[in-house]
Design a protein that fits this description.
This protein has 299 residues and is an all-alpha fold. The chain is 59% helix and 2% strand. It folds into two domains: 88 residues, no CATH class; 166 residues, Serine Threonine Protein Phosphatase 5, Tetratricopeptide repeat (Alpha Horseshoe), CATH 1.25.40. It contains 14 helices and two strands. It is globular and about 55 Å long.
Length: 299
């Protein structure tokens, strides 16, 4: 596959020597396990592995997403992104466009939020879960209907602005599809950036809330749908935030917060307030950022 002119002329990544020094004598796999443990300490589920550590140290990841940022700053108190060797977030807005062409579709994607993070020792043989080529290609290049069918399965087909839902009431399959959509969106954001994903992800969010409106027969399913839709709203809000759509991001975070309060989900509420605080900080509303952060601590 030939490279595009934009990709060919791009500057090579600059190794993150600061992050390498912070790893110290730990192997990449051991350091990745420490990152996952630190994430659990603060309620962040990240699936850092040796490959991710290698990409950071090689400079391929110029700035981590907010979840990783919170974990790294928990591990190394007093250090901001620059002190960790990363590029300031404001300098990498719209990074997908600046990187040029997307990598080949057979490039594997790691999951930032796996079902069961593992601290298995190096060489244990446990493989990282990967999305299929069909899902990746459909989400990045396919039509809206193909994206929904390949990437979201039971979540239903999206046509225009109106979601086409299953004739029966939503059940466990639909709840699982919403959760899978959150994982897939976060995976593709880590790899490609937010700008090209936002509109498709926003359509999926409308479908998730349409499923909520359709009602369920079991309380446990309703709880899963509320939690999944709320996390999806936060993910879509982050895509809006990272691509410079600040008003849309604010709306999505408010939607997630409302969902959390209606369903009595304190973890979702705290997550929504955390992202709201980051958005307020990035847009110069510093007092609001402090209040949102305090609200997250109380949730």
């Amino acid at each position: 596959m030939t490279s595009s002119p934009v990709a060919s002329s791009a500057q090579p990544p600059r190794p993150n020597t600061v992050f390498r020094e912070l790893r110290g004598q730990l192997s990449p796999a051991e350091f990745a396990a420490a990152v996952r443990r630190a994430g659990r300490e603060i309620g962040e589920r990240v699936s850092c592995d040796a490959r991710y550590v290698g990409r950071v140290e090689a400079g391929e990841i110029r700035c981590p997403n907010y979840a990783y940022e919170r974990v790294f700053r928990h591990m190394f108190p007093g250090r901001d992104l620059t002190a960790l060797g990363f590029t300031p977030r404001q300098a990498v807005r719209g990074r997908a466009a600046s990187r040029g062409a997307l990598p080949p579709s057979d490039t594997p994607y790691e999951y930032p939020i796996p079902p069961e993070p593992s601290d298995s020792p190096p060489g244990s043989g446990r493989p990282m879960r990967e999305e299929s080529d069909v899902q990746r290609r459909a989400f990045m290049t396919g039509s809206t209907a193909t994206v929904a069918a390949a990437s979201l399965g039971a979540l239903g087909t999206l046509t225009g602005d109106a979601p086409v839902l299953p004739r029966r009431r939503p059940g466990e399959a639909e709840a699982g599809a919403v959760e899978d959509a959150v994982r897939l969106i976060r995976t593709l954001d880590d790899r490609h950036g937010a700008d090209g994903l936002y509109r498709r992800a926003a359509r999926q969010l409308r479908t998730a809330y349409a499923l909520l409106d359709a009602g369920t027969t079991r309380r446990s399913t309703a709880d899963r749908l509320h939690a999944g839709a709320g996390e999806l709203a936060i993910s879509v809000g982050w895509l809006a935030h990272d691509s410079g759509r600040h008003q849309e991001a604010r709306s999505h975070y408010a939607e997630a917060l409302a969902t959390a309060r209606m369903s009595g989900d304190p973890a979702l509420e705290a997550h929504a307030f955390c992202n709201t605080a980051f958005l307020a900080r990035d847009t110069g509303r510093h007092r609001e950022a402090v209040r949102a952060a305090q609200a997250a601590q109380r949730a």
